[in-house]
Every structure is written in structure tokens, then in C-alpha cells.
């Protein structure tokens, strides 16, 4: 029996107003615009105000996605929030969002897969819909990374930004929507990219905070090598699983960590630059929010039309990776 088709019914995003440029960073740590641009492609990023938490940004992105999908909060069966920067450990940010939206009949949970979180979420949502368990699932990628970045560490603080992206996933016309998925993890690389403090291993304590364990730690070179490898492998895998050729790909929507990593994936697919969505120059790496924000912008800029083949590919802490190919289902 063929599985029912599942696609994206609406997209939305939210970015905080405050812009932090590379020139601003020059005044904070020993860095410079030229280094950041040539090594990463990032020029500026958005920073959430002190009083703004992840659920606030998730709410704004979700409202837009639901409006564009033509559904109300009552239509939602499940809310998945992919984040490594929840409002708090519990209740989940998804539950906080459910209450704020008034989505009283939706189940809700957070998903932790770092930058791959959005693709893990969309994959999960699709299974629930294909097996008939649910009809409409809201998947949100949201991060307030500025709150866990060490603003004294030039190796990491130049890379990250805040924002939220959301999609409503639901049933669509046969032959359209998600065609293939790929998810993976390699926990042996967990220490390459992590926030060691604040959990049960290194609870919040004055000593752990003095050791700055509450902040992101990263081995950039190792993450870089891993990222290039998986971006190539995952894009190949989702194209093959969907029964497509590389030539059929209309638009690559990759995780936005480093322009050099995106370029490696683009070259592997032999795509010209205008068929890849790049917004890291404006927003930096927003972890789980990067892909849904990039998709929302591409949709609003009319870079996507019905029938186009989109490839999503991402990697992140865990280590984790994910990908999907889809035939775009909206007009
Ligand atoms: N400004 C100036 N110099 C810097 C900066 C900075 N902001 N940061 C590092 N440097 C210096 C280093 O100290 C080093 O100096 P040294 O040679 O005197 O020791 C030199 O620049 C080169 O450092 P490298 O780490 O070798 O630089 P590289 O070209 O590898 O770029 C980078 C570093 C940008 C971090 C790259 O490795 C990268 O993008 N890695 C992947 C990171 C990533 O994608 N992380 C997110 C994953 S997704 C998630 O789950 C959140």
C-alpha cells in the first residue's frame, strides 16, 4: 500500500530586531570582519533581547506558519519544538507554546538534536501523519544561542545567532511533499560540540559556572571535517532514496553553519550558486532554526514553485545529521 503524501502546508519565521555585526564583535573579542567573512561567510547575526525567550520567538513564527497554512490552533494535533535553548528544562518549550497558541487538543514535546533538530522533527511529524495518528503537526526550530554563547570565546561567539522558523506539516496531493528522509547520529563525537554544564552531569553550581561550563564548547576543525563529509553523504542518500537524479534538484536548503561547508555540498550536487539558499551572512548559525528560516525566506521570495525538488540537509551537535528530499506541494 502506498503511504499517503505529506507536505508543508505553511511556513513562518521570526528574527529579533537587534543586529550584531562583525564590526561590533571587533570591539568585544580579538577578531575582525575579514577573518569572520573569509572563514565563515557570516557578516551579522540577530540577538534576542534579555526578556525574550525561545517560546516567544517560536510563537511569532508559528502564528505566521498557521496563517499561511489556513489552519487555527484548534486544528493542531501535535507540536514539536526542536531546540537546544529551551525556556527552561521543564516544562518543555513546546508545552509553553501550546498554551500560548491555545492549541488545547495538541500533544507537545521538545526534541533535542541540535542543528539537525528541525529535520528530526519534520521526519517524526511525517510518520505520525502517514500512519493516520495525526493530521496537522506544527514543527518549530528555535534557538536563543546568544544566551549560551561564551562572549569571551572568539572561536564560537562569532558563529551563532538567534531566531525561529516554523512549518505546519500535513496531508497533501499524491506525488507531492516529502519523498525521502535520512537521519543519523554518532554519539562518540558528542564532546566536539556541547554545552557541558547545567544538566545532571555538571549541575548549575558556582564552581561549574566559574569554569564556564554553562557555555557552548566546540572543536571547530573536527566539526568542520565531519560536516563536509555528512553534508555530501546525506544529500546523495536522500536523492537516491527518492529515486531522483542530482540534475533534478531545484533548490538546496542546507543548514547554515559555514559558507565553505555549504559550498562543498553545493559542488557535490553540481548546483549553481543561485540554486542554494544562503542566509548565514545575515543571521549566522541559528542551529535548529536555520533550515526553517531559510525555507520560509525562499518561499516568501518566490524562489520555490509547485513541483520543484527541494533537498534539505543538516548536521549538528550529538553528533547528529539529517536530510530530506521533497517535491514542493504549494502553489
Ligand atoms: N577571529 C580571529 N581569529 C580566530 C577566530 C576569530 N573569531 N576564531 C579562531 N581564530 C584563530 C584561531 O585561534 C587560529 O589561530 P592560531 O592558528 O593562531 O591557533 C586560527 O584562527 C585558525 O583557526 P581554525 O580553527 O583552524 O580556523 P578554521 O578555518 O577551521 O575556521 C571555524 C574555524 C570557522 C570555527 C570552522 O572550523 C568551522 O566553521 N567549523 C564548523 C563549526 C560548526 O559548523 N559548528 C556548528 C555546528 S552546528 C550545531 O549543532 C550548533
Structure explained in plain terms:
The protein has helices at residues 22-26, 33-40, 54-69, 93-101, 117-130, 154-157, 206-210, 220-241, 259-268, 280-283, 290-300; strands at 6-14, 18-21, 44-47, 78-82, 107-111, 137-144, 162-171, 177-185, 193-194, 217-218, 251-254, 309-316, 320-327. By secondary structure, the protein is α/β, with parallel strands linked by helices. It has 2 domains: 6-174, Thiolase/Chalcone synthase (Peroxisomal Thiolase, Chain A, domain 1, 3-Layer(aba) Sandwich); 178-327, 3-Layer(aba) Sandwich (Peroxisomal Thiolase, Chain A, domain 1), CATH 3.40.47. The radius of gyration is 19 Å and the shape is globular. The mean pLDDT is 97. The structure holds acetyl coenzyme *A. Acetyl coenzyme *A (ACO) is lined by residues 31, 35-36, 39-40, 114-115, 154-155, 158, 193, 218, 220-221, 223-224, 227, 257-258, 285, 287, 316-317. Acetyl coenzyme *A binds at residues 31, 35-36, 39-40, 114-115, 154-155, 158, 193, 218, 220-221, 223-224, 227, 257-258, 285, 287, 316-317.
Amino acid at each position: 500500500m502506498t503511504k499517503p503524501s505529506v507536505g508543508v502546508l505553511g511556513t513562518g519565521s521570526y528574527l529579533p530586531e537587534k543586529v550584531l555585526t562583525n564590526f561590533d564583535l571587533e570591539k568585544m573579542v580579538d577578531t575582525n570582519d575579514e577573518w569572520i567573512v573569509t572563514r565563515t561567510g557570516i557578516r551579522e547575526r540577530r540577538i534576542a533581547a534579555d526578556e525574550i525567550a525561545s517560546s516567544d520567538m517560536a510563537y511569532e513564527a508559528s502564528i505566521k506558519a498557521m496563517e499561511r497554512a489556513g489552519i487555527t490552533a484548534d486544528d493542531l494535533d501535535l507540536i514539536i519544538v526542536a531546540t537546544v535553548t529551551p525556556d527552561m528544562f521543564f516544562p518543555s518549550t513546546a508545552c509553553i507554546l501550546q498554551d500560548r497558541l491555545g492549541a488545547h487538543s495538541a500533544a507537545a514535546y521538545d526534541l533535542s538534536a541540535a542543528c539537525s533538530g528541525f529535520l528530526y522533527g519534520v521526519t517524526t511529524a511525517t510518520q505520525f501523519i502517514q500512519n493516520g495518528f495525526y493530521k496537522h503537526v506544527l514543527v518549530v526550530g528555535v534557538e536563543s544561542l546568544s544566551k549560551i554563547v561564551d562572549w569571551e570565546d572568539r572561536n564560537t561567539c562569532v558563529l551563532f545567532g538567534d531566531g525561529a522558523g516554523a512549518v505546519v506539516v500535513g496531508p497533501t496531493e499524491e506525488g507531492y511533499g516529502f519523498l525521502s528522509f535520512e537521519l543519523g547520529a554518532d554519539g562518540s563525537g558528542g564532546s566536539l560540540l556541547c554545552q557541558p554544564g547545567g544538566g545532571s552531569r555538571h549541575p548549575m553550581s558556582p564552581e561549574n559556572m566559574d569554569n564556564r561550563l554553562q557555555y557552548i564548547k566546540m572543536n571547530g576543525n573536527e566539526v568542520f571535517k565531519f560536516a563536509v563529509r555528512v553534508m555530501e553523504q546525506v544529500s546523495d542518500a536522500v536523492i537516491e532514496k527518492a529515486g531522483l537524479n542530482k540534475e533534478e534538484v531545484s533548490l538546496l536548503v542546507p543548514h547554515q553553519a559555514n559558507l565553505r561547508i555549504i559550498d562543498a555540498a553545493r559542488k557535490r550536487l553540481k548546483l549553481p550558486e543561485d540554486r542554494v539558499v544562503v542566509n548565514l551572512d545575515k543571521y549566522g548559525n541559528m542551529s535548529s532554526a536555520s533550515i526553517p528560516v531559510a525555507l520560509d525566506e525562499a518561499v516568501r521570495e518566490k524562489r520555490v514553485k509547485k513541483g520543484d525538488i527541494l533537498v534539505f540537509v543538516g548536521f549538528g551537535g550529538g553528533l547528529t545529521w539529517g536530510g530530506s528530499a521533497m517535491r514542493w506541494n504549494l502553489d
